[in-house]
Description:
Layout: H1 2-5, H2 9-20, H3 32-61
Amino acid sequence: MAENRFSSKSNLRKNFLKAQNTHQPIHKVESPLKRDLAAMAKINRMLKEGFITWLGEIGRQY
């Protein structure tokens, strides 16, 4: 049965597109302050993830 699921490229593409569409929707924020705070929170998460990756790379080298 697993073979039939990915038997054609079109099925593979449909599954890929379905997986992409499962991300959380972008919510519109009414006030500029809330929008800016949401953007800063997103940047903070990105910086945290980058910092952890950076530490892992240093640890891997030494």
